[in-house]
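Section handout, structural biology tutorial.
Before the tutorial, make sure you can parse a SMILES string by hand: atoms, branches in parentheses, ring closures as digits. In the record below the ligand is pyridoxal-5'-phosphate, and the chain has 474 residues. In the tutorial you will relate the predicted structure tokens back to the input. Do not try to memorize them.
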Amino acid sequence: MTNVTKKDNSLKIKAPIVEALKNAYEHPSYQFHIPGHTKGRSILPDFRKLIGKKALSLDTTDEFDNLGTLHPATGPIKEAQELAAQAFGAEKTFFLLNGSTVGNLSLAMGLTKKGQKVITNRNCHRSILTGLIISGAEPIWVVPKRLEEWGIWGYISPESIEDALKNNDDVGMVWITNPTYEGVVSDIKSIADICKKYDVPLIVDEAHASLWNFSGHLPESALKLGADAVLHSLHKTGGSMSQSSMLHVAKNSKINVNALEKALRLLHTTSPSMLLLASLDAARANLESPSGRKQIERAVHNAKYLRREIDKLEHIHHLQADFGYKTDVTKVFIKADGLSGKRLESILEIDFNIEAESASDEGVLLLCNAGNKRSDIQYLINCLKKIDKTNYSDICYLENKKYMPMLSPEIRMSLRDAFFAEKEVLPKSKCIGRIAGEVIAECPPGISVLLPGELITEAHLPYLVGYEFIEVIK
Ligand SMILES: Cc1ncc(COP(=O)(O)O)c(C=O)c1O
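Predicted structure of the complex:
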């Protein structure tokens, strides 16, 4: 079902926060409330010039000018969340500020308790771990398949989830990431069936999959495959502004929605940006609209075109669906013979002014976004053709750092106990054999190298090149 109404013979998509904000802009009140820059009047003139008076006039928080409130959801914000729930096929949707990070923190704080086990994949985002530190629940690691040749993590097998459920009592929930940053997709339907069999809720961190529900050419969202709650970083690929995300509760979900909402209320800012909230409303309305859907299809076509052109190159390759797994076609992970991912990234950046999403040891991640034009893709292809024909191996490039953590942890203490234990800071060389006291998970990809409570070994050193000192348990 779409939230489309016919008005003046043209299709009009409802966007209540956008409309309320427009109304507030067109009928300004005498403002004696925050934010104190007061519609941009008291702000650095260069900044005002840069982002524009209008943007600053729209920078306000909830409560004022009939804009509604976020906690509890009232007025246009409530209506916008309901429209989002309909659009994504959820029972209830929460708008998030502070990204999917605050969604993960709230899921942990609201739905898990001290000592309870949570089955999660080792390559989960660090916000899940932060959530577990807050709640005191203990991760039971599932180690996904490693795609060694590509230097990245692959899919989570349903068997690994079933094994973890079989071997552990008191599992609070199964909490997995899908797809991976590079677009590798797990079999969520089978995993959801297994979770149902064991009567354990399934939470899917779909931070990178906001578009899936709006195209038949992208994988199916976990909301349709039996998950109980799903997170989307709309700001990543869905067209909203940075930091804005959505947390969806599925229809027939087993989770305690009240507890989740309470945690969200405690963890959220008490001054939510109306601009960010409006951008979520606008992003949902756009994704539902015929033109938004066309933008997604354009992204899919662009990605397929890029992949076809890469297939013609001799030394550059792209990760694609295999017999073992599916991929999200818009996430194009490439690698070049004889070049590390970081080296390829710097060639793209320095020689061609191309900024990729991320790079790791073996490859570079390029996102074909809904906003990319065909000419962007053509430029990228032309540059890749030049790289393919150039011998860059003459440039000496010292590389002793590793980026994508692919280690299996040796756990010596519980995550929370270690995080709050007494610690000391030691030079890295003296840390081998000691227990880590801090989270080391650089972004991107935000995947952990070391967590509090884990033994530090020689194998960690290549990932710790930028660190002189490390916090260890006393
Ligand atoms: C899988 C995953 N989950 C959660 C997050 C956190 O999302 P956000 O940046 O929206 O806070 C990220 C960020 O990269 C992520 O990759």
